[in-house]
Amino acid sequence: MPVYEMELGEHPWTATLFYWIGVSYMTLAKDKQGDYVDKAQTKLKEALKVQRKLLGDHLDTARSHVCLGDALRIQGKFKLALGELLKGLKIREKVLGPDHELTMAARKEKEELQRLCEDLESRSRNLNTKKGVENTMHSGDSGVFLTNFKEFK
User: Fold this and answer.
1) Could you tell me if residue 116 is inside a domain?
2) Which of 22, 34, 108, 152, CA to CA, is 20 to 30 A from 96?
3) How many domains does the chain have?
4) Which residues of 66-91 are buried (b: 16+ CB within 10 A; e: fewer)?
5) Is 137 a domain residue?
6) Given pLDDT bands bounded at 50, 70 and 90, which one contains residue 10?
7) At what angle do helices 101-126 and 78-96 cross, to 10 degrees?
């Protein structure tokens, strides 16, 4: 990677390598979490910096936004994840059109994440002073769940 950065500098190929390194960290994160998600975010942000500057509204830029949204979702940062997903969706709609399969997949993911955010906000508002939540959110293969309700005494 340092050779690409040194020889090419800010170049679309460098951004692509940052993206794929980020994706590799995401794959590791799904098995072990740890700091892999943080490393994925770093590389994806580096990719986006170059892609926005050199490519603008491009499919690679959209793909990096969507992947960064996935990394943020794994960390439970749902509103930030939704923001990245919306950026990727907007680019896909512009470049591919609203009916392309990648656009529709991003739209479906956005709708699911919006429902999750709304559900978590609703549950949070509905907790009264007699109820408490420990470990409110944890992520699993099928999403994020509210768990471990207990009475405050």
Assistant:
1) yes
2) 22
3) 1
4) bbbbbbbbbbebbeebbebbbbbbeb
5) no
6) low
7) 160
Tell me the CB-side half-sphere exposure of residue 70, using CA atoms within 13 A.
Answer: 23
Query: What is the rounded CA–CA span in Å between residue 118 and residue 141?
Result: 20
Q: From start to end of 25-153, where are the E strands?
A: 131-133, 138-140, 143-145, 149-151
For 63, the token pair is 């793909």
Task: Report, as an integer, the average pLDDT of 98-112.
Answer: 94
pLDDT for 71-89, tens place per residue? 898 888 999 999 999 999 9
Q: Please check whether residue 63 lies inside any domain of the structure.
A: yes
| Residue partners of 123: CB distance under 8 A and separation at least 6 | 146
Is residue 65 assigned to a domain? yes
Residue 54 sits in a domain of what CATH number? 1.25.40.10
Structure tokens at 72: 């943020």
